[in-house]
Design a protein that fits this description.
The complex is a heterodimer.
Chain A lengths: L11 E10 L2 E11 L4 E5 L6 H9 L5 E9 L2 E2 L5 H7 L1 E4 L6 E5 H15 L7 H15 L9 E2 L5 H15 L3 E5 L7 H14 L5 E5 L3 H6 L4 E6 L2 E6 L2 H9 L1
Parallel strand pairs in A: 3-10, 3-11, 6-9, 9-10
Antiparallel strand pairs in A: 1-2, 1-4, 4-5, 7-8, 11-12
Helix pairs in contact in A: 4-5, 5-6
Chain B lengths: L1 H10 L13 E3 L6 H10 L4 H16 L22 E3 L13 H9 L13 E7 L2 E5 L2 H6 L3 E4 H7 L1 H7 L10 H9 L4 E5 L8 E7 L10 E6 L4 E9 L6 E4 L2 E6 L4 E8 L11 E12 L5 E8 L4 E4 L2 E4 L5 E10 L4 E10 L5 E10 L4 E10 L7 E10 L5 E10 L5 E10 L2 H8 L5 H17 L4 H16 L4
Parallel strand pairs in B: 3-7, 6-8, 7-9, 8-11, 9-12, 10-13, 11-13, 12-14, 13-15, 13-16, 14-17, 15-18, 16-18, 17-19, 18-20, 19-21, 20-22, 21-23
Antiparallel strand pairs in B: 1-2, 3-4, 5-6
Helix pairs in contact in B: 2-3, 3-8, 6-7, 10-11
The chains are: A alpha/beta, B alpha/beta.
């Protein structure tokens, strides 16, 4: 369980976090710690605060932290800009990936990847080298090269958008990935592709938080912990079988 | 919203061309009357037909009323308080660039338009216009080998009077509108281009207009003639110093394309726009029109309008020749208290004529950005087609965007399509890009450039890069 001694320090620690938007409290004291190699699932009904928690960790400007801390690799990141969080290795997979008309997916991915590489003191990639890298990563999500020349997420099907998210995760190689309902709207084949992609990208040094309503993703990726949220709080934490109980309950 | 304010900060960009060149100038007295026009004509040693042209235009102008239909608000212009001729003092005759005042060369150097032999831009011939006169034109000999004439319009009046007499005012008649009439009466300088039959102009031609004095207007006149089966790509750039008064700029551009000829005319307009309170800036009232006279001729306008306090400009095409093609690609960015009323007119006269309009308006600050366009299918324009797309992007909640499309069809056997959209850079889009490690300013600039992509793709390569940079500059808040 969470309380037992861990060998290393946590990647992400959320401590007693409360947050509001337009003076409306959404989170009411959430605590969570993710250690290297761990997969956490957060479940709960719509409106319980799951998505809000993920957006606040990624730095969405619409929410105000009213109490508590978010620590990443031991540092408080409450006041960091979203881009700084991303560059340092926090990844948010969007429930509804945003369309950006006119901006080519390839260029977007390259600029994004280079921002992360710059932070890691790695050489930035030119168009040619990036093509090589992205080709390799496309394999992971079984995406066609043609996706790259389209505008970011524009006209993508639901499944294509989600795969594009996992492609970004593969390119950015985050320390922690928070995947907000990445499974929703996917047919079973797409779900398997996405799930196997997530597994390929994660390793013993990374952490993953899966936000989901459904057991079927957790059949593919077995979490170490399952948290149940309700009304802005984590009301229950258990091991993977908790999810089964819940799904029957929901 | 938090981010909206940030976007506002980002679009504030200091104007980097605002310097004044301290140079002795010859100016005539303020005001406008027949004597002034005679004086201008005399200074330019013009033939009688041109003086008559000017005087006829002046008579018409006196009877006309300043138009007030545009969605623009500005203080009445006092036409008697303007100097209509201002020229840097130079030696009588200049035979080579070496004799041009170094201060002028330095000015154009600073603007990124080097003129001297050692430094001049490769592959682009430049005509540099400073206030009322053309300073220099590069690559003239090379162009002459191909029979291409590229010179100032004043020189063309002297050396190619037959062409001027034949074509001047045939596309934009002096009586066309108030500002065209004013220009016809007092125009000072501008560029003249003649591409002979069958010639593809070996390099891009470019005019660079610089307003230097604060109290004189600039009234340039450009005439481009493309003979049968010839083609040319022409670029135009403009800047002006920062003054707290408004300077009037009323230009006329006429293009003529004969059978199978094509003219591509691109503009990057960056006149001084005034300060954040709307003090100063250029009043830009421009009449640009092309006549596709020949069969299968093509005229393509692309413009990136970022400057001027007021922009009133509708580059248009008269499609007379069978199967002729007109195009208009425009990006207009307004910020602070800038106002732009811009668009095009596509007049389909001949059969099987085609036109495309792509207009992208970006309004930030308290600015006002209107698209105004007319598509007209005449009775003989059978089998003709038009496609228009007008998109507006709003930044912040104080800016406004309008679209005024006018469609008139007298030909049932023709097609007109019009699409319009308005969008806002949303907080969600910005957050998405930022959450992928992309800095806020770069995210805004990426989205604006993405929004303008269709138009930038139409610009000549060097220009596209410059336009992208210019918008990025306006948006990044960094000093260049």
């Amino acid at each position: 369980m969470q309380s037992k001694m861990k060998e290393s320090d946590p990647i992400l620690e959320v401590e007693n976090l409360s947050a509001s938007t337009d003076n409306l409290p959404i989170l009411k004291g959430v605590s969570l710690a993710v250690y290297p190699g761990e997969i956490h699932a957060i479940m709960g009904r719509n409106g319980c605060g799951k998505s809000t928690l993920s957006k606040i960790i990624a730095g969405h400007p619409s929410y105000n932290i009213t109490n508590g801390d978010i620590k990443f690799l031991g540092e408080n990141i409450n006041s960091l800009e979203p881009e700084e969080r991303s560059q340092s290795g926090i990844f948010l997979g969007f429930q509804y990936p945003i369309e950006i008309p006119g901006v080519s997916n390839l260029e977007f991915l390259r600029v994004s990847t280079n921002a992360r590489r710059k932070f890691l003191n790695k050489e930035e990639l030119d168009t040619f080298d990036f093509e090589e890298l992205v080709k390799e990563k496309l394999e992971i999500v079984k995406m066609d090269h043609a996706f790259l020349s389209r505008s970011v997420n524009q006209g993508f099907s639901g499944g294509e958008k989600k795969r594009n998210e996992i492609l970004q995760m593969a390119l950015l190689e985050p320390k922690i990935a928070i995947l907000d309902e990445t499974d929703s709207g996917l047919d079973i084949d797409a779900l398997r592709i996405v799930a196997s992609g997530i597994k390929k990208i994660s390793n013993a040094q990374t952490g993953i938080i899966l936000i989901t309503h459904y057991q079927r993703l957790l059949d593919e990726i077995k979490p170490n912990y399952v948290h149940v949220m309700s009304d802005g709080q984590i009301i229950k934490t258990g091991e993977s079988d908790l999810a089964l109980e819940l799904e029957i309950g929901i | 919203m938090v981010n909206e304010n940030l976007v506002q900060d980002v679009v504030k960009e200091p104007y980097k061309y605002g310097f004044v060149t301290d140079i002795e100038t010859e100016k005539i007295e303020k005001g406008l009357n027949e004597d002034i026009i005679k004086l201008i004509s005399q200074k330019k040693e013009e033939p009688k037909f041109l003086l008559d042209f000017r005087l006829r235009a002046f008579k018409k102008w006196q009877k006309m009323k300043e138009p007030d239909w545009a969605a623009l608000g500005y203080k009445k212009i006092d036409y008697q308080d303007i100097i209509y001729y201002s020229a840097p003092k130079q030696k009588e005759k200049i035979s080579s660039l070496d004799e041009v005042d170094p201060k002028l060369l330095e000015t154009f150097d600073k603007l990124g338009i080097p003129l001297t032999e050692q430094k001049k831009l490769t592959n682009v011939a430049v005509d540099a216009v400073f206030d009322s006169v053309s300073i220099a034109t590069t690559f003239r000999e090379e162009l002459a080998e191909h029979g291409v004439i590229f010179c100032s319009i004043s020189e063309a009046v002297k050396n190619h009077a037959d062409l001027i007499e034949k074509y001047l005012g045939t596309v934009v008649p002096a009586s066309d509108n108030y500002f065209a009439a004013l220009n016809s009466a007092v125009f000072s300088d501008g560029s003249f281009v003649y591409i002979p039959k069958g010639v593809t102009c070996p390099m891009d031609l470019s005019s660079y207009f610089r307003i230097n004095s604060g109290d004189s207007g600039q009234f340039e006149r450009t005439l481009i003639i493309a003979e049968e089966s010839s083609s040319v790509s022409y670029l135009e750039g403009c800047t002006a110093p920062m003054f707290d008064t408004n300077t009037l700029h009323a230009a006329v551009v006429e293009l003529i394309a004969l059978d199978d000829a094509s003219i591509k005319y691109s503009t990057v307009q960056n006149w001084y726009a005034g300060d954040e309170e709307g003090i100063g800036g250029i009043f830009n009232f421009v009449t640009k029109r092309g006549k596709c006279l020949g069969k299968r001729s093509k005229i393509s306008w692309s413009q990136v309008e970022t400057g001027s306090a007021i922009t009133w400009k509708y580059p248009s095409c008269l499609l007379l020749g069978e199967e002729s093609v007109g195009e208009f690609y425009s990006v207009a960015l307004t910020n602070n208290l800038q106002q732009a009323d811009t668009g095009t007119k596509m007049i389909h006269i001949g059969p099987k004529t085609k036109s495309t309009i792509v207009s992208k308006g970006i309004s930030a600050g308290n600015s006002k950005n209107s698209y105004r366009g007319l598509v007209k299918m005449g009775t003989k324009a059978t089998g003709s087609r038009n496609y228009s797309q007008c998109d507006s992007m709003l930044i912040g909640d104080q800016a406004s965007a309008n679209t005024f499309p006018y469609i008139k069809s007298q030909q049932p056997n023709s097609e007109i399509e019009h699409e319009a959209s308005t969008c806002r850079i949303s907080e969600d889009q910005l957050f998405y890009l930022q959450s992928r490690g992309i800095e806020f300013e770069e995210a805004v600039s990426m989205m604006v450039s993405g929004f303008c992509r269709d138009v930038f793709n139409q610009l000549p390569m060097e220009f596209a890069a410059e336009a992208d940079k210019l918008l990025a500059l306006k948006l990044e808040g960094s000093v260049g």
